[in-house]
Structures are given as C-alpha cells and as structure tokens.
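Section 5: illustrative case.
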C-alpha cells in the first residue's frame, strides 16, 4: 500500500495557485525527454517556443525550467538582458556556480580577458613596436644592446594585453569591413604579447574552454538545460555562435544531455531547420481560456464572455483579468478604456491601482524603484504588485510584460502629458541621486565598469528622454557616445534604451535613431557605424562630436586604418582643442607608425591639458623607452604610478623597463607589487618568470611560467618563455615542444621562431634551425641576434662565406652586439684571419661593458664571454680570474653545465691547448654538481 500523501482537494488547490494556464501538451512533451536516453530514437535536445507577444512564452519557459529542476537538472536562464556572446557564457557560468557547479577554467580565462580588456587602450601603444619575445637572442649568449632590442621588439613575452577597445562577442565571420586587414595589423603588433587571440577574438578562445567546462558539468549532473528567452532580441548577437555550439559543433562536442530551449517571436533562421522541436504558441482557444477562468473561480457566463472579448484570448491578459477577481460584467462596462485599465477598475484599492500604473513607467523595478515611482505607497503594495501575473522576475528586479506595459504607458501619456513629464522627471532625479552616490566611490575610469552605476545612468537617461525628448536629446546622445567607448555590447544596450524611449515617449525620430543604432551593432564588433550615426545627428553638440571622433579614431587605429584614425583625431582636436584624450589617442597612432617625435609632441600636449592623465604619462614613458630615453621613461612611469598607485599596467611597464635596462631585481619588485594586489595577474606572473630566468633562478622561473600557462593555456608568450627556461636547463625536447605550441598559436611570433631555431641547432638539426632563422628574418629583417645565430649555423655547416655575410649585416645594424662580436671572433680564428686576435680583443671590450652594466645572468654571460676570449688569446691567468668572477655571480648547475658544453665545443673548433682548457672544464664540471 502506498504511503498517503496530500489530499485530492489540496492537490487541486496547489494546482490553481501555481499559476497554471494550460500548455499541457508542451510541458508533457518536454517532460518525456527526462525518461529517455540520448540513444533513444525519440530523444530531443533542442526546443523552440515561438509565438507573438502575450501568448505566454516566458511563463512556459519558466515552467519548463521548473520541470527540469524537478529532474535534478542544472539550469541557466538567459533573457534579453544579455547583449553579447561573452556575456551569455558568463551568465551561464554564474548561474551554474550558484548551483555549486562552477566552470572554473572558463571563469579564470574570462577574468583574464576582462583584465586585459580593461587595459587595452594603454596596451595598444605598447604593442606598437615591441613583441612577445623573450630576453636574449636565440642563443645562450648576451643579446644586442638594450636599445636595439627594444626597437626590434625583443623585450618580451607577450606580456602586454590588448589592442584597443575590443570587447564582447567576436565571431571571425562577422568582423566588419577589412577583416583580413584587421587581422594582419593585429598580428603585426601583437604576435609577441600575451593573449593576442584572447583579446582580439574572445569568443573563439573562450568558447572551447566554456564548452569543456560545460561538458564536465554535464558529467556531474543527469541533465543541463539552457534557456534562451526573448530570443528575438538577443538572436542578432547570439545566433551564429549558439547554432555553432548546439547544431554544427564548430566549437567542439556538446554532450547530448545538454538540452537547449529557445523562446521568441518568429521563426528560427533556415540554418536551424529540422533541428529543433517546435512549440508554437497561439492565443488561447475559447475552450482553453474558459478552462483557465474556471480555474480562477470565474464561472458567470456574462462575465466570462466580457473577459474573452476584452482580452482577445491573449493568455497574459486572460490571466491578468482573471486574477483581478471581477464579480460582474458591470465592473467592465466602460468600453472607452483598455483591457488593462478594466482590470485596474476591478481592483478596489485606489492605492494598488495607482501603484500598478506608476510602476509601468520604469523599465524594470525593485522595492527602491517602487517607492520612487509610487508617490503614496500603501503597506504591502510592493508584495501585491510582484504577485501580479504580468510581472516577471529579471535577475534581481521585476518587469511588466511588454503587452501590458505598452497599454499602460499609452494611457498614461495621452491622459495627462504634464503628469507624464512630472512622473518621469521624478524617477530620473531618483536614478541621478543613486548614480551620484555610487560615483562618489568610483573613479572616472571605473564608472562604466560598475554594473549598478551603469544601470542607474541608463535609467536616468531613459526617464529624462520620456519626460522631455527634445531638450534631453543632446545629453542622451553624449551618453550614447560614451557607451560606444565601452564596446559593442554596451553600445547595443543604450541603442535599445533609445529605441524604447522613443517608442514610449511618442518620439519617432528618437525611436528611429535607436533602431538604426541597434542594426549597426547587430553581430558587429566595430562600433564605427554606430559612432558615424551619432555624429550625423543634428542634436549632437561639438563636445559630443569631438568625443565621438576620438573614439572612432581609436576604433580605426585598432583596425590598422591609421590614416582614418589620424583624420578623426585631428577633427576632434579642431572641434575641442582642449580634449586631452584626442591628443593622447593621436599620439598612440603616431607611435604605431613609429613617428615618435610627433607622438611625443602630442603626449606632451595631452599631459599639459590634463596633468593628472596617468595613462598619457605611462604611454609617453613607453615611447621614451622605445627611443632609448630610459631616464625620462622611468620618470614618466613613476609619475603615472604616483597618480594611480593601483595601475598594474604602468607598474608592469616600469618592470619591463627595468628588465630592458638589465635591472632584473627592480623588475621583480614591480611585478611582485602587482601580484600582491592581484595574484592572478598573468602579465605580472609571466614577467616575474622572465626576470627570474635572467637572474638564473630557473626552477622559480619555470614555476612562474607554469602558473601563467595554467591560467591561460593558449598563452604564446608564457609557452615560449617556458620553452626558453627548458632550453637553459638542458631540456631541449621539452623546449622544442613548447616553442612549437607557441608558434602554432602565433605564427608571426618572431622571438619564439628564432629561439626554436637555436634549440634545433643545439639538437644538431642545422637544416631546420636555418629554416627558423630565415623565417624570423623575413618577419624582422633587422633582428641582429638572428643574423648572428644564422651565422653560427652556417659556420657549423661549413659555409664560412655565408656566415661572414650574416655577421657583417649584424655588426652594421649593431656594432656593439656582443653575440655578433663573439661569433665573428670564432669565425676569424677558424678562417685564419690575421686580425683574429683583434677580434677577440673587441669581444673583451664589448663584454667588459656588458659586465659592468648588466645584472644577474647578463653579467654572468659577459664574464663567461670574457673567459672564453682570454682562452682564445692564450691569456690563461685572466681566463682563471674571469672564471672566478663567473662563479662569484652564483650560476646554477644548469649554467655551469651549459658553459662547460659550449667551451668544450669551442675548444675543439678553435684547437685550444688541451691542458689549460681541461683545467677550466674541470672547474666548470665541479661547479655544476
């Protein structure tokens, strides 16, 4: 005998109170999948709920979500508040995390992307002329001079993120005009910096990680069900990505126990054809509507007939009217009112009536907004309002159904225009007060990143437009331009608001502008079209136009359209000569074109206009560094950090400057400062590893790069730097594997290609080493160290003339190159040149300077070169002294072993006397134990 449960009457009571309004067949069909396995012929994993506004799509989706949870499914619900693919993945991850199933790897990668995105306007300048490279040339010997290294982009690692304002959903097939040109420009600048692909194509990089984590979540639960509601609004930015995820599996394999439900007006695009189970919803039949009314206790035939007539059997209105509990047809006799107002007349409490109308005014509301909207709220009014059938929950707020809200707004606007303006002005003032309170604790750079402030600002603008569309238009346009400054998803949100305000306020010109802006941001990463539309609006003032031109100038710059960028910045300056960001932006474009004097002049002007412009100081510091003016660069970095002590990009930039100058311990201090505040700041982790390697602390350097790769698995710079550490530790196969991964991820990564060549040369693969050196020089024709290394490969292969030609090129580019000088002396000895000893003395002079200027491994390498030169000259006493100085620098066992190997090889090549060389080799072997 079964255990007794609830009574039949209790079951019916719960059924009535649940808000059940039919749709039995749809719910039953959905329930059936949980009794099947993916192998069953009738199994389904994609559903599409469709129908016009008001037929109950959202209600049904919420019932389906509740049904899925009843079968222990993990669920995520996304509505029209999602404006991009990255945002959608983030929303799914956040909801699964609240169900104790976090997508950990995705969350880490997303955090890194946001960190980079926050910095990218600064990073654009830094990436102009530098690369992802490591520290030294492609050999275990000192590099060219630090100035030349900086100019050639040997300052490494892929450590500087971003390339201009790139945010939100990026689908390679949806890039705006000049996609190929855009990619070429990005690769030319970013291939040697961290997370090039993450920043430029976040969707392509994030999606596979999201998919893998989602698959792991699906392995921990019987089902995962993702709901995409109001899809007619989000499909423009989600459809290609979602179809690739669910149907085409272009991003990887989605487990079959992941079910997707789409709900929206209209049909799916043809590419979805045949994949989804269609759930088309229409208005209720008379029978369905009557059944709902009976469930609500309404059985009077005349009252039923009146409700059916007034609602047109639209489910949301049938349920709304039914829940108001009318008692007779007389209560709905006034045929001049809308169906919604008839419902309000049935509500006898005038306070509730006023609250229901007043809360149609805001786009959405919570209890605070309720009290701002309702002049005289009644006790319990908010709870009563949120229980109404046309009020749904969206995140932590509530919102009216569009059909109901549209009717209420139309009534309010036409009934009393003056009251309409007064009510919207009161709400605008409330949102202004709330945003002002939040702004007090934020900086100008972080305002738009604060979700609460952004929502208040958007709502304030909406209400001002509703109250006075003409007089509020200029300020709204300026805010829309500012929104474009923060990426396509933010711009799209503001475009939706402008379109909604125009519709609600009866302002067709405003509604049309909003619609055009929406179209311009559909699936397009570049906001140039939107900015062009805003520039053309006659209500835009000079300040707004100047700002729009400055932002569009940046967008052109990030796409490699430098002439257009300079034209926009110059036009902005012509409109507003005091706009600091326009001078700073034009300076960045000049820097990308390596027009450094013009760049410095504009940075000077930007700083003169705004002495608190920390970014301008940091970027000017970068230009000073690139032109070898290190003292001035350091002063600018110090100033930027003094203005903004929590400016990790500037602190890392100063760390990179210290590294460029061979001040590895100061570099470590800067990177450590960043990591104290942000332990997962990938650039600082990788930079710290680079400095540790240069100090000879290989084990710690390897741990740092392992951590960087763990945080960002597709991180070319960290992979290449880890490969270099492996190479220094004698783990050449592991080194080659990491270099291969780095180059596969970033095919124009010159430093990695060159160092892979050095690794191949060490393994005896001269042919492949030469191929890498040739490729590196095709990419960077003035890469001194690669000429020297290619000369070594030619020398090993016996092609002395080719070696001499390469060394001649290297020394013409950089006469002070210690590596080229060393290889030139070796070649001169092998060739029996009369001036061979002079060449070794040139090595002594060059490396004596390197020892004095360098720190850590750089000084150690210089001492080793000095020892080798003395051996070649037969000066064994000084060779012994330099060997002692080499040991005093604290080399690790790997450096001892590498030094011994290289000296043994050179001794054989140069024919040095066995006895004295043997003593040096024995000492090196002893030190390496």
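Designed sequence:
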């Amino acid at each position: 005998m079964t255990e007794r449960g609830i009574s039949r009457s209790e079951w019916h009571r719960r059924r009535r109170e649940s808000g059940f309004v039919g749709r039995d067949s749809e719910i039953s069909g959905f329930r059936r999948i949980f009794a099947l396995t993916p192998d069953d012929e009738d199994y389904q994993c994609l559903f599409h709920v469709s129908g016009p506004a008001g037929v109950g799509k959202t209600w049904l989706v919420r019932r389906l979500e509740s049904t899925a949870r009843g079968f222990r499914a993990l669920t995520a619900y996304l509505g029209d508040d999602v404006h991009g693919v990255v945002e959608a993945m983030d929303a799914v991850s956040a909801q699964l995390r609240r169900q104790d199933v976090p997508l950990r790897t995705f969350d880490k990668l997303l955090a890194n992307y946001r960190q980079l995105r926050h910095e990218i306007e600064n990073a654009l300048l830094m990436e102009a002329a530098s690369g992802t490279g490591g520290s030294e040339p492609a050999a275990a010997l000192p590099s060219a001079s630090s100035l030349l290294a900086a100019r050639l982009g040997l300052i490494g690692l892929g450590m500087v993120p971003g390339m201009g304002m790139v945010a939100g959903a990026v689908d390679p097939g949806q890039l705006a005009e000049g996609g190929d040109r855009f990619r070429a420009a990005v690769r030319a600048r970013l291939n040697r910096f961290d997370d090039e692909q993450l920043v430029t194509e976040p969707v392509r990089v994030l999606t596979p990680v999201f998919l893998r984590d989602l698959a792991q979540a699906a392995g921990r639960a019987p089902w995962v069900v993702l709901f995409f509601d109001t899809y007619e609004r989000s499909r423009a930015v989600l459809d290609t990505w979602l179809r690739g995820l669910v149907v085409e599996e272009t991003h990887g394999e989605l487990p079959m126990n992941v079910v997707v439900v789409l709900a929206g007006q209209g049909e799916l695009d043809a590419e979805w054809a045949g994949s989804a189970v269609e759930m088309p919803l229409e208005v209720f039949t008379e029978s369905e509507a009557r059944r709902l009314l009976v469930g609500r206790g309404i059985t009077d035939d005349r009252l039923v007939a009146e409700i059916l007539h007034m609602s047109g059997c639209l489910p949301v209105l049938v349920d709304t009217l039914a829940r108001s509990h009318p008692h007779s047809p007389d209560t709905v006799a006034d045929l001049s009112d809308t169906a919604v107002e008839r419902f309000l007349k049935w509500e006898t409490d005038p306070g509730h009536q006023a609250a229901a109308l007043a809360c149609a005014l805001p786009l959405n509301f919570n209890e605070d907004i309720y009290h701002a909207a309702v002049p005289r709220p009644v006790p319990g009014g908010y709870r009563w309002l949120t229980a109404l059938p046309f009020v749904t929950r969206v995140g932590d707020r509530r919102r009216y159904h569009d059909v109901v809200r549209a009717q209420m707004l139309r009534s309010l606007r036409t009934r009393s225009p003056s009251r309409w303006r007064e009510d919207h002005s009161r709400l605008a003032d409330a949102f202004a007060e709330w945003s002002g309170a939040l702004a007090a604790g934020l900086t100008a750079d972080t305002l738009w990143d604060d979700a609460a402030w952004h929502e208040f600002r958007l709502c304030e603008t909406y209400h001002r437009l509703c109250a006075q569309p003409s007089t509020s238009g200029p300020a709204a346009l300026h805010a829309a331009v500012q929104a474009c400054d923060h990426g396509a998803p933010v711009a799209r949100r503001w475009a939706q608001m402008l379109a909604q305000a125009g519709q609600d306020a009866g302002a067709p010109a405003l509604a049309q502008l909003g619609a055009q802006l929406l179209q311009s941001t559909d699936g397009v990463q570049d906001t140039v079209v939107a900015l062009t539309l805003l520039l053309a609006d006659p209500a835009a003032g000079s300040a707004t136009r100047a700002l729009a031109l400055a932002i569009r100038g940046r967008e052109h710059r990030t796409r490699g359209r430098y002439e257009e960028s300079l034209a926009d910045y110059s036009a902005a300056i012509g409109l507003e000569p005091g706009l600091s960001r326009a001078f700073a932006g034009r300076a960045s474009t000049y820097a990308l074109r390596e027009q450094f004097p013009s760049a410095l002049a504009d940075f000077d002007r930007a700083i003169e206009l705004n002495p608190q412009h920390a970014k301008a100081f940091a970027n000017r510091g970068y230009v000073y560094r690139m032109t070898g003016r290190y003292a001035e660069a350091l002063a600018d970095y110090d100033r930027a950090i003094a203005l903004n002590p929590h400016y990790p990009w500037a602190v890392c930039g100063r760390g990179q400057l210290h590294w460029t100058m061979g001040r590895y311990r100061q570099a470590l201090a800067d990177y450590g400062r960043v990591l104290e505040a942000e332990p997962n700041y990938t650039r600082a982790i990788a930079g710290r590893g680079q400095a540790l390697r240069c100090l000879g602390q290989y084990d710690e350097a390897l741990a740092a790069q392992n951590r960087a790769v763990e945080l960002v698995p597709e991180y070319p710079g960290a992979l290449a730097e880890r490969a270099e550490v492996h190479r220094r530790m004698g783990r050449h196969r592991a080194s080659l594997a990491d270099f291969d991964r780095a180059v596969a991820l970033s095919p124009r990564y010159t430093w990695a290609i060159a160092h892979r060549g050095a690794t191949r040369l060490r393994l005896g693969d001269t042919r492949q080493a030469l191929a890498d050196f040739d490729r590196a020089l095709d990419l960077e024709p003035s890469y001194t160290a690669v000429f020297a290394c290619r000369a070594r490969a030619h020398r090993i292969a016996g092609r002395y003339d080719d070696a001499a030609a390469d060394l001649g090129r290297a020394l013409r580019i950089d006469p002070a190159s210690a590596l080229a000088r060393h290889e030139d002396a070796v070649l001169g000895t092998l060739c029996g040149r009369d001036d061979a000893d002079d060449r070794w003395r040139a090595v002594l002079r060059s490396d004596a300077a390197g020892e004095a200027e360098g720190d850590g491994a750089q000084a150690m390498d210089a001492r080793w070169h000095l020892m080798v030169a003395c051996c070649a000259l037969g000066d064994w006493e000084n060779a012994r002294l330099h060997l002692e100085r080499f040991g005093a620098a604290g080399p690790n066992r790997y450096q001892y072993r590498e030094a011994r190997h290289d000296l043994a090889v050179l001794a054989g090549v140069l024919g040095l006397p066995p006895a004295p060389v043997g003593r040096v080799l024995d000492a090196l072997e002893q030190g390496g134990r």
